[in-house]
Amino acid sequence: MTYIETLGKQAKKAARDLLSLSTSEKNALLTLVTKRLVSETALLLTENAKDLAQAKENGISEIMTDRLRLTPERIEGIAEGVRQVADLEDPIGQVVRGYTNLDGLKIVQKRVPLGVIAMIFESRPNVSVDAFSLAFKTNNAIILRGGRDAINSNKALVSVIRQALADGGVNPDVVQLVEDTSHAVAENLMQAVDYVDLLIPRGGAKLIQTVKEKSKVPVIETGVGNCHIYVDEFADLEMATKIVLNAKIQRPSVCNAAESLVVHEKIAEQFLPMLEEAANQVQPIEFRADEKAYALLKTAVPVTEEDYATEFLDYIMSVKVVSNLEEAIAWVNTYTSSHSEAIVTRDLVAAEKFQDQVDAAAVYVNASTRFTDGFVFGLGAEIGISTQKMHARGPMGLEALTSTKFYINGQGQIRE
Fold this sequence. Notes:
By secondary structure, the protein is an alpha/beta fold. The chain has helices spanning 3-18, 23-39, 41-57, 62-68, 72-87, 126-137, 151-167, 183-190, 205-214, 237-249, 265-282, 291-294, 305-308, 325-335, 348-357; strands at 95-100, 106-113, 116-121, 141-145, 175-177, 198-202, 227-231, 258-264, 286-289, 301-302, 316-322, 340-344, 362-365, 385-386, 394-395, 402-409. The strands form four sheets. Strands 10-9-11-8-7-12-13 form a seven-stranded parallel sheet, with helices on both faces. A four-stranded parallel sheet has the order 5-4-3-6, with helices on both faces. A three-stranded antiparallel sheet has the order 1-2-16, with no helix packed on it. The longest helix is centred in the middle third of the chain and has 18 residues, at 265-282. The N and C termini lie far apart (48 Å). It is found in: Cytoplasm. It is an enzyme of class 1 (oxidoreductase).
């Protein structure tokens, strides 16, 4: 039996064990996990320091290293996400619909667990806890495969969770970490159709494309964020400046950071120098600009076609000047990764048209794309942000980790 087959067999058993847990029991166990995470802060920081040191040795940029970093505040934030999941309504057992058919059969459709979820993700160790809490609340077992750059942090986090579960009398195999970070083992996980019901990749475009190509297990795409902000001719330019700077520089290494700026030609001459000056006072941005924008910016570089489709995850932003709202919408729809898009405008008709016609999971009016987050949306934690349209779209919370089952009760009916 291979390594992944062993983990899969253990996960299937654990998933069956979970079916007997009530909502109150699950919430109590999640509360126990939050307390253990906070109490083990010193251990978690020690193990995380090993990953940070390795990142430095490997020459990983500070922006990307920040995705790895745990602090006491971030650990408390991770624990708070688990607390929120515990406080959320449990979808398992919820009746989607119920009716009596013409044969007198009483038919009820209820939410049920998926079974075993696998997740392949990069860099951010908080994902381990977020994914566990959502899976556990929905009675799913989960197999986690993080990147080698966060292996020590992930080992520590999963170990703390498993110990808390064991102390609470629950099979700790409801959460397991793939500690072998080789590509071969990852591919084994992608093909574990006998054990895994759903695979969620969370990371960069290369990871997600690899999983899509090689997985035999059903996949939900998440994460890649080529997010645009369109500054309309009727925008409040001070508001637009604040929104763009927040969306680009507050945390550039995350998928809801803005990568592309689209500007109406009627305000470009005033807005672009204003934005550049404001950015230089906080954090300079490398603007990769089209011909019109390049002429208005002091330190821009010429844009390439590839730049328009790139998730930079850095202080870099492509810039396109357009003639009207329709051109802006068409441009965004050409290059969007279907994650999050925004318009800044005081024109309600333009705002409504942009929201209706832009094809993305989250479409904002006069707000930063940085808000696309399960925690912010009130979902507790999130297991990812789906950029596809089947089953789940946008931040994936509890309901996204459920299926449904029909319960049929009769009184001796047979089909003639």
